[in-house]
Design brief:
The structure is a homodimer.
Chain A lengths: L17 H6 L14 E7 L5 E7 L1 H5 L3 E6 L10 E3 L4 E3 H8 L4 E2 L5 E7 L2 H10 L1 E6 L6 H5 L11 E4 L2 E6 L2 E9 L2 H7 L2 E9 L11 E6 L5 E5 L4 H12 L6 E5 L15 H11 L3 E4 L2 H7 L6 E9 L5 E13 L6 H7 L8 E10 L13 H19 L3 H8 L18 H9 L2 H4 L7 E10 L6 E7 L5 E5 L7 H13 L6 E5 L16 H28 L7 E3 L2 E4 L2 E4 H5 L10 E6 L7 E11 L6 E11 L6 H20 L30 E6 L20 H14 L10 H12 L1
Parallel strand pairs in A: 1-16, 9-11, 14-15, 18-19, 22-23, 29-30
Antiparallel strand pairs in A: 1-7, 2-6, 2-8, 3-7, 4-5, 9-10, 11-19, 12-17, 13-14, 13-16, 17-18, 20-28, 21-22, 21-27, 24-25, 25-26, 28-29
Chain lengths: ~750, ~750
């Protein structure tokens, strides 16, 4: 299809789920009700690191109303093996251990035991009656701390893997990998200016509004039925089946509406516990997390220690780039350092690169994905170093980026060579944006820029499209809809069918009722599930042409279509009229699409940000913010803009406010949304958006995922703006008032 | 596929829905709950025929807790047109009028107004406060009464259609049609014995255990969401859309489990009313019927007046058969006289036939389908007349039937010529059954036989099958499962896939989530939806062969399959192992089947029944009962046997007990299950079953529908047995003790 022919793709129809969301009809996980429902509560560790000597549940079990108490010992103890948790393989023992601690607790908030009772209050009270005898151990809370000689060992059996091989050495470094391209020493030798800096970023939470929840029924026929809010109903199915040692088809997951995820609702916490409690009691069991549970018991994004060294010639050509990335995995291996390493220099075409990545376990919650996971940390480092080089060389920071920008054919140090990408176009759009030339006015003001890259993912998706007699179609999909993907997926079917987006009725169904569909993550749904919808619609069109051929007694190959009108010779019939004639031409028409697409295209983003810094308090006020992003072809521009604004707001939160503020014992001191300060609408200016469209050659409509790249540039751009405003280089996130004041004071000294 | 190759079809796996049904987990319509739910109540007419002068809802509206009151005036008044209500076309005005009466009430129990309130009790109380000013009119309660000169006219605008043309005459006869074959007069002239008899059959209810129910939410986005128990979720969708004058895609129907239907849960009563109440109130509204509502306000099967005349030569050859069928339509045209006329002589190969059918409106609830609708009435007449001829000629009644039995090539008077059928095989199986030769023993005992025919239907069905990584598959279907069709449909997919039935996970989903699927009725689900499952599974196998070809780098055409093992050259892989490799070979595999099959095959059934009649009380006790039926290929023999036993039990109810016992004003006097006497397990002997298998050439596995033919023979067989026991010919249903005593007394006179 040629772009100019699109009638639905690129328009802005009203979202299909809008009415339910704004009227409060939409049912989220916590809304689920069932006859005979019991309520679960999880007892969590008060220590960041301790050995569990003994758990005595006697008193809890005796409390009237309590129906069952559970510890890790109740889980089937299948032999350890690697299992796919929706984001790659993990040892089963780690997955199980994070759901209920066994032997040791590894972070404050680690689940230790669970209770099911006739009310949530009784369950909570009973949890308080469980006696756990802990031997408290010293803890390690950051990557540098955990990597130090003599640091407390978190997993006694964790042997460091180095460059893909086990070293046999037990340490808190789960893995050290290295990407090399060119000759790093020669690259720096060639450089006329070299800047090397160290960075620290805080542990940050995704901060979705809806806490985790799960209801499970272990039915008498052995089937396990689950209702929950999740980014991947099939992930919940597969992980639960794995932990409970049953075949995947024994588990049915019904995804409820989801109140935000951002990557944090991929991991499975409550479902297997609720299922086991249901098995023990014979009743359905519902468990809801509190906000404190969410902060302390679910996966935030890794805090990190990063060193970046970049060398350039005087003309601005970057000759070498080196990074040392040590990311906190939290309690179990699997930090986001791998994607961090993929993205750290991904916006630049550099010949000589070396990247060292360290995956480090610490006594914090096991980290999870958070919107372009790992990339925001890395880009903060790279983008401020690049800014410093531009400053040293007296080159405009966008010109410097443009000169070194990645393009089609550029190879990344981790391997892949880019197909057509939009890095240059994003930087050019920033350069010519009126914002970039606008006068700043006022004192203590500065303007910063930064760019970011996210690779996006493909993965399997399935869709079914069936035609209604009134000329509308129903679309069934397995992708839980976090950001309005019902509409962006439906639009792609509508485009193929030649009907309005409103005439496609999308439904997200349970895991029994649609083909396998991977997680809603990696900015993949509009890309991959949209592609499945495209294929399903093509299948429908093939069948409809056969029906037309039957009606007119002609050959299906002679039937052409144009905007929902079928033609052959001098005859024509609309999609609507044909839809009414299906029964008489052979029965219903249903089309399938099931894909595992490989043509995923990465997305580049960039920010221009103006700040004013109050030199008396260190408060940074964002005066103006422009976000630019390559969407490939923007399927629904309003959604793209929404993603850009949402990602920017979160990136600003990382930059200025958000962090797990922990005491030395590993206790989070700000585990409420009042104390954990996310930016609100009052804190932010309007975030202007510019959509750049460099179509992705790997998708039928040229779409790229747009959900993630937008969170990456804000910390770097804001740090650079702060430098321009008050002359200090910020190298630690968040850049909150005390941090800015410290920097100003140390500059004055 | 050859029969001997079947590994799943013909076996007896445990039903997929068994655990939920026996443990009470299964959710029926009345179980549905939702936040903010209001409760509806329907005000029903106390008169069988009356003009509505005025409805005053003022007092009802003022009752605290009442949120809305509705009358027929609240329905959109779209111009009249023919609409498909799931069983053929009906004027919209009739469909609307039966849901809420407008102008006149036409039967006692006719819905007049509806209330929504915060509790069911308040709603009921409010309904009592609605003041309706009726002008009571004389009523006509039976077909002969309504056809009489000067009978009360029920529809002032109903012009009798005769032989397909409007006569312009207003009467209670909606239609008079005639089927003619051969020369009826010549046929009777050729006959050496002629028997002509008159019959009356009572109005009988399907007696499903679960009353009708509906919950509807008219959402703020204009979508109407419905949860209900129904035989056809798409029927409810389409009829509700029609009555509310919205496109079908605006309505989503979620079928809950259904506690029996037998044809009576095809019509739509509550859903449009609940939807309008929801629109008025902004809340979801649930309406439940009481048993009295079910009896008085929903469609029973027609009472009928029938005359049958049959002539035969002395050798038993039937030369002519004539029938006059006057069936009660109830309040609106559309009795089951058309199928009655199709079936009345369908078991016999007769050259000269004339059948007159009369569709007569009366002041009773609008009749509905009930298991082989119309055929049981007709067969009662034919089978007793045939028995009398056999008796007169001194021929064994099965020999007489065998001599005249319909076979491949026999043409029915209504047109169709039989393909391969099993009438002869059924009668032969009866003849050679030990029961037929067993000594009766005792006084006042007799043995009767009778046969029956039902044509079954096809209609569109859709299925989707998706493959799980553990080698099981999920099957999505739109056929609500009344009698265990999840399993009989799943088995057909399993057979194609070469996996056990238990490895297919069937789910009945809402109308948004599956292709169009017609009503669960006409014994069509195992036949047509089973066929759709067969096609979907074939589609899966096609795709899996391509995956195998990809794995082995060979040609898909070279891949063969045998019992779930794929082979090419010397390589082989099981379905299970292949299922685990889908992601790496291109993504999920989902198969579709959507069919509108034409090859439906009719089913014949026959009964041998022994009775003992108490000559003092007239009570008839069934001593022994053998049911024989041609199932084509029996997909799941236990279900076939269950259908045969269930149909027989209902046929016995028709024969011996059940009737709407009405007073002269058209009030049903026995509208509870205590007074409306259905046979219970204590009333019946074990019903022995013999499955005859004459494969249907019009189905991949040779299946015929088996749900209906089994209800047809019992009244005739029992009447014939009563005659053999005590010498009286019963020509009125039910043959309850007073009726039998009357017959005995009149014989003595």
């Amino acid at each position: 299809m040629k772009a100019q022919e699109y009638t639905v793709v690129g328009t802005r129809p009203i979202r299909h789920d809008g009415a339910d969301k704004v009227t409060g009809r939409a049912l989220y996980g916590a809304d689920f009700q069932m006859a005979g429902l019991l309520h679960g509560h999880i007892l969590r560790s008060p220590h960041a690191h301790a050995r569990i000597r003994r758990i005595d549940t006697t008193k809890a079990e005796k409390l009237p109303g309590v129906k069952a108490v559970l510890t890790a010992a109740d889980f089937p103890q299948a032999p350890d093996r690697l299992v796919d948790l929706g984001e790659g393989d993990t040892p089963l023992s780690y997955a199980r251990g994070n759901v209920l601690a066994s032997g040791k607790v590894l972070y404050r908030g680690h689940a230790v035991a669970a209770v099911a009772a006739t009310s949530a209050h009784i369950a909570e009270e009973a949890a308080g009656l469980i006696e756990v005898d802990y031997e408290v151990l010293p803890c390690a809370l950051t990557a540098p701390e955990a990597m130090r000689e003599g640091a407390p060992v978190i997993h006694e059996d964790l042997k460091t893997k180095e460059f893909g091989e086990s070293t046999g050495r037990v340490s808190n470094v789960a893995e050290h990998f290295r990407h090399v391209m060119g000759d790093i020493e020669a690259g720096f030798a060639e450089a006329e200016v070299v800047v090397e800096r160290e960075f620290h970023t805080a542990t940050v939470h995704q901060g979705y509004i809806e806490p985790h929840n799960a209801t499970a029924l272990w039915n008498t026929d052995g089937r396990i039925l689950i209702w929950c809010s999740t980014q991947g109903s099939f992930v919940v199915r597969d992980v639960t089946a794995c932990l409970l040692d049953v075949p995947v088809s024994r588990v049915r997951v019904t995804p409820m509406e989801i109140g935000g995820g951002f990557g944090g609702k991929i991991p499975v916490y409550l479902e297997p516990v609720a299922a086991l409690l249901s098995k023990k009691t014979g009743h359905p069991v519902k468990i809801l997390m509190s906000r404190k549970d969410v902060f302390e018991g679910t996966g935030p994004t890794p805090g990190s220690y990063i060193k970046v060294k970049i060398g350039a010639r005087k003309d601005g050509h970057i000759t070498a780039a080196q990074a040392y990335l040590a990311y906190e995995a939290g309690a179990y291996p699997g930090s986001m350092v791998a994607p961090g390493a993929m993205c750290v220099f991904a916006a630049y075409d550099v010949a000589n690169v070396m990247i060292d990545g360290f995956d480090v376990v610490v006594n914090k919650p096991s980290t999870a994905a958070y919107r372009a996971p790992g990339a925001t940390n890395a880009a903060f480092a790279t983008e401020t170093v690049v800014d410093e080089i531009a400053e040293k060389l007296g080159i405009d920071p966008l010109d410097l980026r443009l000169k070194n920008a990645a393009k089609e054919g550029t190879r990344r140090a981790d391997g892949p060579k880019y197909r057509r990408i939009g890095c240059v176009e994003v930087i050019e759009a920033m350069k010519k944006h009126p914002h970039y030339a606008a006068p700043l006015g006022g004192l203590n003001r500065g303007r910063g820029v930064a760019v970011g890259f996210w690779f996006n993912v493909g993965l399997p998706s399935s869709c079914t499209v069936s035609v209604n007699a009134d000329g509308t179609v129903n679309l069934v999909e397995g992708s839980t809809d976090i950001g309005g993907t019902r509409t962006s997926v439906a639009m792609q079917a509508a485009e193929v069918l030649g009907i309005p987006a409103e005439d496609v009725r999308p439904t997200v169904v349970d895991t029994d009722s649609v083909g396998f569909t991977a997680v809603t993550g990696g900015s993949r749904v509009t890309f991959a599930t949209g592609w499945a919808a495209y294929e399903a619609a093509q299948d429908v069109m093939r069948q409809l042409k056969e029906r037309v051929a039957k009606l007119w007694e002609t050959d299906a190959a002679s039937v052409t279509t144009d905007h929902g009108v079928f033609q052959s010779g001098d005859k024509s019939i609309t999609f609507q009229d044909l839809a009414a004639k299906l029964d008489q031409t052979g029965g219903p028409v249903v089309g399938n699409g099931a894909v595992n697409p490989r043509g995923v295209g990465g997305s580049f983003s960039g920010n221009i940000v103006d700040v004013e810094v109050d030199p008396e308090t260190g408060k940074v006020t964002i005066l103006r913010f422009t976000a630019v992003q390559d969407a490939g072809k923007a399927i629904h521009p309003s959604y793209v803009e929404g993603q850009m604004q949402g990602g920017s707001a979160q990136g600003i939160g990382w930059a200025l406010n958000e962090e797990y503020y922990m005491n030395r014992d590993g206790a989070m001191m700000n585990s409420s949304l009042l104390d954990y300060r996310m930016p609100t609408a009052l804190d932010l200016p309007m975030i202007d958006t510019v959509i750049v469209e460099v179509p992705n050659p790997g998708h039928p409509f040229g779409a790229r995922g747009v959900g993630e790249a937008n969170i990456i540039p804000p910390p770097g751009a804001i740090a650079n703006a702060i430098h321009r405003a008050v002359g200090v280089r910020m190298r630690r996130l968040p850049m909150n008032p005390p941090a800015v004041m410290e920097a100003i004071w140390s500059q004055r000294d």
